[in-house]
Amino acid sequence: MSTGQKEAAPRKALEQINNYITAKTIESVKRELGIDRIIKLAGNENTNGYSPKVKEAIRLSLEGLSYYPDMNCTILREKLSKLHGVEEEQLIFGNGSFELISIIAQTYLEEGDESIIAEPSFGWYKNVTWQMGAKVVSLPLKNHKVDLEIIRENITDRTKIIWICNPNNPTGTILTEKELREFLQELPSGIILVLDEAYVDYVMEEGYPDSVSLLKSYQNVILLRTFSKAYGLASFRIGYGIASKQVVLQLNKVRLPINTNALAQTAAAASLEDREFYRYVLQSNKEGLKLYYKTLTELGLEFVPSNCNFILFNTGLDGDTVTGEYYKKGILIRSGKEFGLPTWVRISIGTREENELVLETLKEILRRQA
Ligand SMILES: Cc1ncc(COP(=O)(O)O)c(C=O)c1O
């Protein structure tokens, strides 16, 4: 609609930003396709749901919702401080780790600063860098893995943040403790290293870092965790960061005073109490991955062994076409095109029944396209 008024100019820094591509919701696809059953495997959510203990805790907490939530996240803070063996002041909570990524950029990036991202990776690092008028230094992976060597070579005196997603989304690969420690030893001081560990719970490969212990020696490291994946609380919106007290003090200057809602805090705290459900989720994921490895090997398709709740593989066909074929059946997956891998797809691991259906459908698609 045009009112004839001149459009107000947004900040210059925003000119290069396209709208963030988000996965479609189940409801919107139901409406569009007129199908009742939609299987969403495009956003790496937990299709096993969340712990029954969460449901009960939420039911009991409904009374207090006309009040503002606990701005300090006291109960959750106490639990996580014990779980990780860190001081309570080393924790910061966010409306998902998405928000924490924004907070980090707002705290540290000046116009013209550089932020290093090994790509393909989680897309939000790039957006927040641009929002601040800083420069994205995009570096390639090596064999689908973050290449610390090339990162080291590209550090300049303008480098302010290095974003490392470990394990990496969308490839599922990890950096080991040894590799990270060697890198940190040579990292010039004054650079923030963000280790986004959204998928930490799913890691199976040997050598994954005890990242909390890195904080003892390196005060500019920030760890990011989320309740959206293994705990299945994606819709509640809650994640947290662990860092030195000094860093958390700075991050808190930018954070909205009330950024995590009461239900999210209650759900997160309750989910930590149910280790049985947590183990079930991890076991289900492990079995799902095993089925993918077996089937993809039989089909002769290249894949990246995953430490996450998704798998990236090469269909040998156009990734958008494959994604479109799945879509017609009400199965939502992610095309590799947006990651610069045009013949690949990324599919979240679902329940056994969902995984079997996805793989049967894959065989059908391959037969039809042959
Ligand atoms: C690597 C990574 N970091 C952060 C997030 C954001 O998670 P949330 O905001 O739900 O905590 C995601 C979501 O998929 C992710 O893949």
Automatic annotation (TrEMBL):
SUPFAM superfamilies referenced in this protein's UniProt entry, alphabetically: PLP-dependent transferases (SSF53383)
InterPro entries cross-referenced by the UniProt entry: Aminotrans_II_pyridoxalP_BS, Aminotransferase_I/II_large, HisP_aminotrans, HistidinolP_aminotransfase, PyrdxlP-dep_Trfase, PyrdxlP-dep_Trfase_major, PyrdxlP-dep_Trfase_small
Keyword Metal-binding in record: no
Catalytic activity field: L-histidinol phosphate + 2-oxoglutarate = 3-(imidazol-4-yl)-2-oxopropyl phosphate + L-glutamate
GO molecular function annotation: histidinol-phosphate transaminase activity; pyridoxal phosphate binding
HAMAP family to which the protein is assigned, alphabetical: HisC_aminotrans_2
Family: Belongs to the class-II pyridoxal-phosphate-dependent aminotransferase family. Histidinol-phosphate aminotransferase subfamily.
Protein name: Histidinol-phosphate aminotransferase
Organism annotation: Anaerocolumna xylanovorans DSM 12503
Gene responsible for this protein: hisC
